[in-house]
From TrEMBL:
SUPFAM superfamilies: Sigma2 domain of RNA polymerase sigma factors (SSF88946), Sigma3 and sigma4 domains of RNA polymerase sigma factors (SSF88659). GO terms for biological process: DNA-templated transcription initiation. CDD domains: Sigma70_r4. This is RNA polymerase sigma factor. Residues 15-82 form the RNA polymerase sigma-70 region domain. Pfam families: Sigma70_r2 (PF04542), Sigma70_r4_2 (PF08281).
């Protein structure tokens, strides 16, 4: 971070190389949108890092948790904007139709269940969805998730329990044979 704060572009490139794909996967799954939209979020994350690297405090967060906090905040902002657009009727179509139920050409069991799981994740309350995706996609532990979300480890554990329960119920209701970890 010191190298980035000093204006060394190669340091930012290394950070992008190390964390770009994980952040993109998190943003895509959190937003339920296209890869391009997720990449826009990640580009904004790294632009923020470039501008604010000097403000990074290693005593308050790890680089990874700082990056995911920036991404989470941006995803929340986009979610709020999209909700407002839908409310006023300006955004009736989903950003990525491939995230809806599978069409006739891809009705194989695995893809159908993946689509159901994806829908179930998108239907979770935003904090549960964020905790679950930070655990599953970013592979952060409970303490790191707590840092990203600005809450306690106990709260994160409860969010994960509720998210998994809701996802299991969603899959069971849909008739899926998928078994989720406890």
């Amino acid at each position: 971070m010191l190298a980035i704060a000093a204006g060394r572009q190669h340091a930012l490139a290394q950070l992008v190389e190390r964390h770009g794909e994980g952040l993109t996967a998190f943003a895509r799954r959190y937003l339920g949108s296209s890869r391009e939209d997720a990449e826009d979020v990640v580009q904004e994350v790294f632009w923020t890092v470039w501008r604010k690297a000097a403000h990074f405090d290693p005593d308050r967060a790890q680089v990874t948790t700082w990056l995911y906090r920036i991404a989470a905040n941006r995803c929340i902002d986009i979610g709020r904007r999209n909700a407002l657009l839908r409310f006023v009727g300006l955004d009736a179509m989903p950003a990525d139709p491939s995230l809806d139920e599978p069409d006739a050409e891809v009705r194989v069991s695995g893809r159908s269940e993946l689509s159901l799981a994806r829908k179930g994740i998108l239907d979770l309350p935003r904090r549960q969805r964020m905790a679950l995706l930070l655990r599953a996609v970013a592979d952060l532990d409970v303490a790191e998730i707590a840092q990203v979300m600005g809450t306690t480890g106990g709260s994160v554990e409860q969010l994960l329990v509720r998210a998994r329960r809701a996802l299991r119920e969603h899959m069971a209701k849909a008739g899926s044979g998928v078994r989720l970890r406890q």
